[in-house]
Design goal:
Low-confidence stretches: 1-17, 182-189
Largest sheet: 12 strands, parallel
Number of domains: 2
Number of strands: 39
Distance between the termini: 16 Å
Radius of gyration: 19 Å
CATH superfamily of the largest domain: Hexapeptide repeat proteins
Helix content: 10-25%
Structural class: mainly beta
Strand content: 35-45%
Length: 354
């Protein structure tokens, strides 16, 4: 093992180290001894096991912190995609010959073998995807859904479109991999002057006028770019892996004790306190989200839309689905508390390997 305790990947008979490998509870990821390609700014954390001939794209994140991630052979994870677990409830298990496109999220679920998950797909907690399934671009697989073998699925929630054959799945996988060429890397940004309690992942990129409140956290492979107006993040707010926030006009303001989930896209908007923006959401410029809002995974907003407080919103575009009940509010609070703990732990672990 190289100095500093980092493990390595093999590719083309050369040793390649992912940009960041961190332990969780003292456990490092396990890589196959056979070739594994690790892209620029890729991150692998915790009790993750990767099979032979895996390919991890640029800015991809595999995070096994609280449950295991087990991935089979010939896994392909596209640029800016995320694999994560649900702490204390759901691991993530992926079979052999699985291809995941760009900006996708595979979260706390079970995926069989010979599966294609296209660009911008979100697969949520407790879902089961059988062998031989195609999930078309932009689909959302709802929690605890079961996608039966031999079908193509699309939509939000994902529903079966038609039967699909093994050769067609293989052809779609090859097409998806061919489309994932090298992506241009943004220039390194200005690192904000932050409080000692703030965690900024080493693979995150921040540029421009950015203010991070005490106890806040910016996780792996996030991009925050304040081109015009500032980006202001409240205390104890967490911005999860592969989220992109861009200010091209008035800026982005996010209140305290708020969660911005994996692979979210935010542009020139206002988000209140104690809110949760779910995995894979897209928040359009001019959107105003009040305090105490839960925006469900995969939802989008229209430019200038107002999301009233104390409400669950979902859909494309988002519509009010009902008031927030006590269970959802408690869940939102637990996520904030858990990510404050993650931020402290990863700050310490990251400093130990630098």
């Amino acid at each position: 093992m190289p100095p500093g305790g980092q493990k390595t990947c093999l590719v083309d008979f050369r040793l390649v180290t992912p940009d960041l490998i961190l332990p969780h509870d003292g456990v490092l990821p396990v890589f196959s001894a056979r070739p594994v390609w690790c892209g620029r700014a890729s991150t692998v954390i915790g009790t993750a096991t990767l099979g032979a001939q895996a390919w991890l794209g640029d800015d991809s994140v595999i995070r096994a912190d609280g449950q295991i991630v087990t991935i089979g052979e010939r896994f392909w994870l596209g640029h800016r995609s995320t694999v994560h677990i649900a702490t204390d409830t759901h691991p993530t298990r992926v079979g052999d010959r699985v291809t995941v496109g760009r900006n996708a999220v595979v979260h706390a679920c079970t995926v069989g073998s010979d599966v294609v998950i296209e660009d911008d797909v979100v697969v949520l907690d407790g879902a089961i995807v059988d062998d031989g399934v195609l999930i078309e671009a932009g689909a959302t697989v709802f929690p605890r859904a079961h996608l039966a073998a031999g079908f193509a699925y699309a939509g939000s929630p994902a529903k079966p479109l038609r039967p699909i054959t093994g050769p067609e799945i293989a052809e779609r996988a090859e097409r998806l991999r061919e489309a994932s060429g090298d992506l241009p890397q943004p220039a390194a940004g200005d690192e904000p002057d932050v409080d000692d309690s703030v965690f900024v992942a080493r693979t995150a990129r921040l540029h421009g006028r950015i203010a991070l409140g005490a106890g806040s956290s910016v996780f792996f492979s996030c991009h925050l770019t304040a081109e015009v107006g500032p980006i202001v993040v409240g205390a104890d707010t967490n911005i999860q892996d592969n989220t992109v926030i861009r200010s091209r006009a008035e800026g982005v303001v996010i209140g305290r004790d708020t969660t911005i989930g994996h692979n979210v896209r935010l542009a020139d908007c206002r988000i209140g306190a104690r809110s949760l923006i779910g995995i894979g959401c897209v928040v359009a410029p001019g959107t105003v989200i009040a305090d105490d809002v839960l925006l469900a995974a995969g939802a989008t907003t229209d430019p200038g839309q107002l999301l009233e407080g104390g409400t669950l919103w979902g859909g494309r575009p988002a519509r009010a689905l009902g008031p927030l009940d006590a269970d959802k509010r408690a869940m939102m609070t637990r996520i904030v508390e858990g990510y404050c703990e993650h931020g402290r732990a990863y700050k310490q672990a990251q400093e130990a390997v630098l």
